[in-house]
Design goal:
Blueprint (H helix, E strand, L loop, with lengths): L5 H8 L2 E3 L10 E2 L9 E4 L16 E5 H7 L6 E5 L2 H12 L14 E2 L4 E2 L4 E2 L4 E2 L4 E2 L4 E2 L4 E2 L4 E2 L4 E2 L4 E2 L4 E2 L4 E2 L4 E4 L4 E3 L4 E3 L6 E3 L4 E2 L4 E3 L6 E3 L4 E2 L4 E2 L4 E2 L4 E2 L4 E2 L4 E2 L4 E2 L4 E2 L4 E2 L4 E2 L4 E2 L8 E3 L4 E2 H22 L1
Length: 337
């Protein structure tokens, strides 16, 4: 178990620390304000929990400078003061809660082609299949029942949880996490329709996933038809998301559960898609756009705009439309009653 002093926390987080009455305490973890004890660090991210600060047993509290001004003279806790308490909480949490794995080494029960290159520090669980020419980087962990196709590459410090499929010719960067059931590199939905048949178009591209990407359980990233499908660094994809062939997603995006993105769509950087957004093919979504839940996107979305509805429209227009519709419904109900 990791134990850190308040001075350790200060150095690691690069935050201001005041009120060092608890300097000798060794902190062992993180807990909410109403549950923390003196050996735990707590946090104030939402102002509605401000009153809990005065009653908490936490040894230290992560908070903003503005919040600290409200109570720093009234509490005996150490205060870890920062510009973004949520980010600081995440970084400190990573110190206390590192992933552990119940197996180390390369299992004799894995099926590994002789031409595959596996770093000696990697962990390969029993019943993994690794195809010809595949490469696994340092400290990466591949859980049971994963399939790594021929000539695919996995970078350093990655985790592939059980039942992940990484098909042939796909590339994953460093520090990526693929949760159970993820399929990377399945065939794109490409067919040419004739009068009496649907002719399959070979999907000869791959998938390129950059560093620090996380993909949720049972999500699918299809391989490109001719060129690669791409996911930019630090993009986070939720469970049950479908990304079609030749989609290009930028950096630092958040894509929530049950989103579907059709083929050859381009998504900019720092885009947020809420749950069940549907995006048609060959559209462009600008940087920092935000798409609200269940939006149906059928045309290009400008940068830094919020859109909602199906078909989607600028959010103010969408909410005005809903308000008008609700007013009409109420008036109709009154007349009918």
């Amino acid at each position: 178990m990791t134990n850190l002093s308040i001075n350790d926390i200060s150095k690691i987080s690069n935050c201001e620390v005041i009120n060092l009455n608890s300097e000798d305490i060794k902190f062992s973890g993180i807990a909410p304000l109403d549950r923390a004890d003196k050996n735990q660090i707590s946090f104030l991210i939402n102002d509605k929990y401000l009153n809990d600060v005065y009653h908490t047993n936490a040894g230290a509290i992560i908070c903003s400078k503005k919040a600290a001004e409200l109570f720093k003279e009234k509490v005996a806790n150490c205060l870890i003061i920062c510009d973004n308490p949520h980010v600081t909480l995440a970084k400190i949490s990573q110190i206390f809660f590192k992933p552990t794995h119940p197996f180390n080494g390369i299992s004799d029960h894995a099926i590994i082609d002789k031409s595959a290159e596996i770093h000696p520090s990697a962990t390969i669980f029993p019943f993994v299949f690794i195809g010809p020419g595949a490469r696994i980087g340092a400290h990466s962990v591949i859980y049971s029942n994963c399939f790594i196709g021929a000539a695919s590459t996995i970078g350093e410090d990655c985790i592939l949880y059980p039942n992940v499929v990484l098909r042939e010719g796909c590339r994953i960067g460093n520090r990526c996490i693929l949760n159970p059931g993820v399929v990377v590199g399945g065939d794109g939905f490409g067919f040419a329709a004739d009068i009496n048949e649907n002719v399959k178009i070979p999907q000869i591209g791959g998938v390129f996933i950059e560093d620090d990407v996380e993909i949720g359980a049972n999500s699918t990233i299809d391989r490109g038809a001719m060129s690669d499908t791409k996911i930019g660094r630090q993009t986070k994809i939720d469970n049950l998301v479908m990304v079609a062939h030749n989609v290009v997603i930028g950096e630092l995006c958040f894509i929530a559960g049950q989103v579907g993105i059709a083929g050859s769509t381009t998504v900019g950087n720092k885009v947020v898609m809420a749950g069940q957004v549907g995006v048609s093919g060959h559209v462009k979504i600008g940087d920092k756009a935000m798409l609200t839940a269940q939006s149906g996107i059928s045309k290009n979305i400008p940068s830094e705009q919020i859109w909602g509805g199906s078909p989607a429209r600028p959010f103010k227009e969408y909410t005005a439309h809903l308000a008008t519709l609700n007013k009409i419904v109420k008036q109709t109900n009154k007349k009918s009653s």
